[in-house]
Specification:
The chain is α/β, with parallel strands linked by helices. Helices cover 40% and strands 16% of the residues. α7 packs across α9, α7 packs across α10 and α9 packs across α10.
Amino acid sequence: MKELLEGYAFSIQWFPGHMTKARREMESQLRLVDVVVEMLDARIPRSSANPLLQRLIGQKTRIVALSKTDMADPDVTQQWLAAFREEGLKALEVDCQKGRGTRALLSAIREAGQPVVDKWLKKGVRNHPVRVMIVGIPNVGKSTLINRLLGKNKTVTQNKPGVTRQTQWVEIGRGIELLDTPGVLWPKFEQAETGFNLAVTGAIKEDIFDRETAAAILLTRLLRLYPQQLAAAYGITLEDGETARTAEAKIGTARGAIKAGGELNLPKTVDLILRDFKFGRLGPMSLEKP
């Protein structure tokens, strides 16, 4: 896969041999649940979604939870939430670190699973729990959210009829049981654009793409979309017609990434730009709009 992005040739060497095994494990786990929570990176909701998921879950209810919203442009995040809701999906924001949105998520899970509870009630089974699984691509915050939902009082409920002994269920709220294993959806991309978005947000390993090219493409985007935030983050002045290369020089100088003799230390500059964006240190920015 090799395409031109912002005038740069960008490619990713992506050969996930373990994807088939991961998909089979996911399928076996999904059979056990009533509701699926798909976590998406709010900066790249389209790129962090896996089209394979809908086929895997079939008729089960899917809830979209946008994570890392503190790193995303809040106006764009609201646009995404509105777009998902127009599609008939329940969509909400979740701050995995601070726990904001977890109560709303539990309410949404309970509401989505009510038809299942009602079905069991008709069979004479009272207080049947809603069973849920949290899925998403790597590094989107699944484990952090699970730990936040579990809190300190973790109640294991695996020794119940109909539940395999290897599967651990935990109560995370009244009438809700969570499969205590984050479902890993391996990224699937056929376009360089998707690969680039996954690369700069930390969803895929750094050794499978050209970091200098990725940083140049990222800076070109940010110069167009968020020039004032970029300038403020590094304490630099950006001129009209600024390019990624001239911006790199200013950023490297401002951060002391200079070799002996005054030459720009490009690898060090590239590292800090990619790291700062990945961890949201440049301010709230989004790379995709609905």
